[in-house]
Each structure stands twice: as structure tokens, then as C-alpha cells.
Amino acid sequence: MSQSLYPLEFKPILKEKIWGGQRIKNSFGFDTGGLKNCGELWSLSGYETEQSIISNGFLEGNELNELIEIYMDELVGGNIYQRFGNTFPILVKILDAEDWLSIQVHPDDELAIKRGMEGGKTEMWYILEAEKNAQLIAGFSQKVNENVYLRKIEEKKLPEIMNFENVEKEDVFYMPSGRVHALGPGILLAEIQQTSDTTYRIYDWDRVDDKGKGRDLHLREAMEAIDFELYDNYKTEYPKNANETNEIINNDFFTTNLLDLDQGIQKDYGQLDSFVILLAVEGSFNYTDKFGNYGFIKAGESLLIPAAQDNINILPDGKCKILEVYIIDIEEMETGNM
């Protein structure tokens, strides 16, 4: 292993959104630079035009994907480098919604690539804060075919057939590609997603700007992407044991676990052929590795542990909740080759 690689910290990327608020500043203490409606904090990004910049150590100032070009599998893991090349495959965000986001859908990889786009988008939401009676949309509330859907679009009554979910802190919603969804007001959440900004906007609540113009919709493009199936449950249940690794999501796109800590823990990643992201979602933590590298991560910040590092010590500053994210090859795991 190259000892020159170490756990990487990043400068935040902050974004103005028409639906955004002030929680990223007020709850997490980030300097939003006077943004009126700071809707998104990109905590870790390899998206081509919005790459995270390293903020610690001798690699400070480098863009994330530049380091993949140099370190390749040492940074991301062998299988991941083969799959994704020099693009970091996970995008980590904090979203603050003061108004409804558009009702939208994301295509899967196959459809996106067929249409010449960067790739599909599967994501998950971990709720950080939710006002009383806050809601989001996940999927349909009834069995719907394309004709019913198109009629509701034409009548501007799409919400009538959507599934509204009441939201509480620590809820998790998995949004695979194809699932129609929307985030409602009064919610602050962490989003783990594929590195893609491919979105088809279906309905924007009839909003218009000061010139009376609405945002573009992508109705024709969305049709082939939508999953019209009706599901029994759209909320993800998961264990919440203290000082243990609690699995939330495990699929080909990402594995996400919850670490709910009030004492120190050592994590051994020697069996993973993957980078590991540690996103502090509540509280803060100190970390050290076996080479003497150390640092401090507060809520909303991400730490990227290179694939070539096999363990890390995490010491919460009081109590801390962390989302632990990596990618594993599901087929290899199932065949016992991992």
C-alpha cells in the first residue's frame, strides 16, 4: 500500500435552490455565503462539473477525480475502478426543503446511457429533521396505468394518485430509478445517490417565475423511465442498535449502514475492495488511522477512507450518528469470492 494516501476531507459545495431554506446554515453551522435559499450541500462529489476539493493534508486543493487518475484502485478499489474509471461513483448531499420539490423520476443506467446521458440515478434519503406533519411523495397510492397517469398530468391533478408519506427524524426512504418521488417542505435530509444529475421533472406544482414562466417539464422523456408498480411499503425499516453497524441498504449501487455511537469504535475494512465514506449526520467525531493521520468531522461533512486503508478508529464527540457508505460486488459476495 502507498502510505501517501490518507483519509480525505472536503470543502463543502453549497447551492441556491428556489425551494431551499436556512437549515444548512442554522442546524449545521455552515457558512452559506449569503445564499437566500440554500437548498443543497454537496458533501462529497465526483460529478464532473461540481467536484469536491480536498481540504486536508498534502493533497489539499486537488479535485477528487484527479486523485482517482493518480491512485486508481488504491483510492476506490479494484472492481470499482474497473466499473467507473476516473469518476467517483457516489454523490453525498444534504437537502433542505422549505417548499415542495418537483415531482420527478430518474432513469436507470440502461435507459440513461441509451439516451446519451451520464448514467441513471438511484438514491436513498435519511431524514435528519422533520417539522410536524411534514410529508414526501414516494411512488403511487393506487394501481395506475399509463392512460390514468397521462390524464392526471393533463388535468394537472397528478398529486391525486401519488403516495404521500408522513416523515419523522431517522426515517429512510429508498428511491430506486423509476420511482416517482418528491420532497416536501419542512424536511432536512441526507441523500446518498449514484453520481448523476439525470432528472425528469414531471410536475412542478404550477409554479411560475416573475415573468410568468414555469420550469421545463420532461413528460415524454419520463414515460419510459417510470415504474408504475404499486408497492406495499415505501419506507425502509432498519435496526438502530447503539455502537454497532446497522445495515440500511445493500445493493449494487451502494451499501449504507448507520453507526449510532456514544463510545469509540475501530472499523476494519480490510475485506472490502472499496473506498468507505463516513458522513456525520448528527454530532461530530474524531478519527485516527494506524499511520498517525487524524482529524475531526462535524455534522454534514464527509470523510473518504481510501480502499487501501484497512482500519480506522472513530471517537464520537459525545454522541454521534454516522452513515457509512461503500460499494460491494453483490455477485461476488453471494458466490463467496469476497
Notable traits:
alpha+beta; Jelly Rolls; 6-stranded antiparallel sheet; 338 residues; 20 strands; 5-stranded antiparallel sheet; globular; 2 domains
Could you describe the 3D structure shown?
- With 338 residues, this protein is α+β, with helices and mostly antiparallel strands.
- The strands form five sheets. Strands 1-2-3-10-5-8 form a six-stranded antiparallel beta sheet. It has a five-stranded antiparallel beta sheet with strand order 12-13-20-15-18, with no helix packed on it. Strands 14-19-16-17 form a four-stranded antiparallel beta sheet, with no helix packed on it.
- It is 14% helix and 34% strand.
- The longest helix has 9 residues, at 146-154.
Report the major sheet. 6 strands, antiparallel
| Level-2 CATH architecture of the largest domain | Sandwich
Average pLDDT metric = 94
Strand element count: 20
Task: Note the gap between the termini.
Answer: 19 Å
Q: How are the strands of the largest sheet arranged?
A: 1-2-3-10-5-8
Number of domains: 2
Q: Classify the secondary structure makeup into a structural class.
A: alpha+beta
CA radius of gyration is 20 Å
SSE ordering: EHEHHHEEHEEHEEEEEHEEEEEEEEEH
Q: What do we call the CATH homologous superfamily of the largest domain?
A: Jelly Rolls
CATH level 1 class label of the largest domain = Mainly Beta
The geometry reads as globular
Total of DSSP H or I helical runs spanning 4+ residues: 8
The helix content, as a percent range, equals: 10-25%
Low-confidence stretches: none
